Amino acid sequence: MNLRVRANPRAAAGGLRRQLRKRRTQVLLFVGILGPGLITSVADNDAGGIFTYAQAGAKYGYNMLWLLVLTTLALLVVQEFNARLGVVTGKGLADLIRERFGLRITVLGMLLLLVANIATVVAEFAGIALAGEAFGITRYITVPLAAVVVWYVVLRGSYAVVEKVFLAFGLVYLTYIASGLIVHPDWGVVLSQSVHPTVTLDSGYLLLSVALVGTTITPWMQFYLQASVVDKGLREEELNYERADVIIGSLFTDTVSFFIIVATAATLFAHGHHNVTDAKDAAQALVPFAGQFAKALFVAGLAGASLLAASVLPLSTSYAITEALGWERGVGLSIREAPAFFTIYTALILVGTGAILFPGIPLAAVAFLSQDVNGLVLPAVLVYMFILINDRRLMGRHRNGVFANVVGGVTIGAIILLVLMLLASSLPGFPWV
Amino acid sequence: MIFLSDFLRAEILDQRQQYVGRVGELVAQLIEPFPVVRQVVLRGGKKAFPWSEVRSFENRELVLKVTKEELALGEPEADGVWLARDILDKQIVDTDGRRVVRVNDLQLSSMSGSLIVVGVDIGGRGLLRRLGLEGTGKAIAHGFRREWAQKLIAWDAVDPVASNLESVKLRISHQKLAKMHPADIADVVERLAAPERLAIFASLDEETAAETLEEMSPEDQAEILERLDDERAADILEEMGPDEAADLLADLPEERVEALLDKMRQADADEVEELLNYEEDTAGGLMTTEYVTVTSDMTAAEAIDRLRELEPEAEQVYYVYAVDHRENLLGVLSLRDLIVSQPGKLVGDIMIDKVVHVALDTPARDVAEVMRKYNLLAVPVTDLDGHLEGMVTVDDVMDTVLEGAGRRRMARIFG
Which of residues 231-270 of B touch A (CB under 8 A)? Predict the structure, then answer.
């Protein structure tokens, strides 16, 4: 006599729940405290971000802190949109764009996102290379190693492992706060500069301002954050909880940014070392003023940040594109089941490492390209989000009210204006350059 | 083959070839087996005319039977489905393929004067057609000497997913979905967004809903149950196996558990409550309380009758346990033993009286080891006094052992 064993492999997962339940409590504990908002924010302070903040501190001292404060507010507004869209619709941003705006716009958007993210992934691997070289390890070891780790851990590792890795990355960021404290800044000046906008009207200042906003609010993070919010499966009643999560996340990420600026301002700027060529250079320049330890902390932060962003970006890109085009996706599927998903994921990592290891590809140009393409995509993404969040059919009673629209409109308008300035500045013949 | 994308933005000409406007939408009525196009909406979405005014559609030109002046333009029907807005680019369930797919295009067909939706294009050709690149794709495929097949699903094998709970016109019965195997429904439902999951659960009967829920991951189970109202949730829990129901409830907040237990039938609630007391990773946490017992003084024929009577409830009937009147475990018989025995033979004479059993607090791994060693499909669970408390079946234990099986869902968090 045959036992009735359900043929579906899913049946096997049925009783796994006892194991899972335990793990779930752990996940909830982790996600409950830190959450998607925090992981997104942590990944947001990537190699490009660290470089930009270090540059801001070295070149203009505490002067740009006020802009960072405003950018944080903008980040909060935009991320609240993501949280609300995700919780209410239960769908990712790419899904919603496809369903609301149709195929053409989606394909165009996804192509741009792909290009922007490729450029950003290259920048992340550049960050890894620089972090290694700061300690005298050649990029021909660090970058391939990082690529293998990223590919393997995310695709083939278990969730529990990845979760702990992410948490560890989060802790690495605290090193920047430590660096900021070690250098003993003048807190009176720091505070006054944070609340009193002082604009210098030279082209360098303007461009760096734009870069600072652009590196803090990026297109990919909108997709990633919303997807993680959806994944958490929150109910509408729990929306405020998710709002708290993105607020904490944004504040955390910008606190870290704040301390990077403070650290470099108190040392590099104060001692007349105004030009930072890359993040490694910034770390090295810290040594005479703050010692080897500050440098080590700074580099550790850079390595962690780049590695985390290098894991999150390819994954978020593959999810967004396959989601939008309705292709099979998921880390747990086999390569044959979800070929497009794995192709995009692997290709991004290969291009990222290839660009760094191939001699003759100018990294500086890649960084600029990454900034410009991200700048090009960001306004479109923000406008889509603005339309979606005002859609009555989609959002019901959670659509934007007048207040949210004014705040959101001003924020998005300001970001778009800045981004247009950045794009204009990369055109030949731009008056300020 | 004609597709919805051919119609969208196509020119509308009247009887005398005069320009009337462009097609913005086709409005259809969701009729079984195929939706019928009722109206053509002009671009802008405000004005519409009935499909019956259309004489022909060729080369992306829609020609009317009447003149521009005679054409009666009215409001779009309120209860119709807008094919581009409501179906195109949305997710649908392919009930044959048992998966969720996205609608790239809709295949239409003209049948005795009416236009009906016959298929859903889910392939790359549909994607490129929408982008105006189908010809290019075809040329490339031709260059490789390949046939480039259309990926179409017949309309009668799809179940649209209501993307909007508020819109009455898209409230769908999900009859086709309900006919699928619960494990497949679970597969499909797990791929949908929360509002859509709820819409589907609302349409399933309690038994199907319970079986579907049993097939889902603990996270998803809890998520769905949290969103259902108490009444409906309690009804579904009653239909589930008590061990499954207990596992699910263990994931919910305390107050909700009590509310749900209150609403459940007393007998079901008692069983579930009892199971809730045991540690998750022990025999007590794994076991079901639905099993078949007979007394040793019954005849084989009587035992088989009892089995018939209990079968619908019990999870596994291959083993029948013999107990005394105080529920002390005396022996075990297999179904095979019962059937091949003389009808008049006593259970006490057929049964094996040295029964392999586990205690309530035996760890799950040890339970699995016992079952592996003795080649059992189920093992009885007894308390310290030897009272039969429940039974752990092989599929419950297998799940604990096969840890890797859950990775697929857990990894989604990055998406």
Answer: 244, 247, 250-251
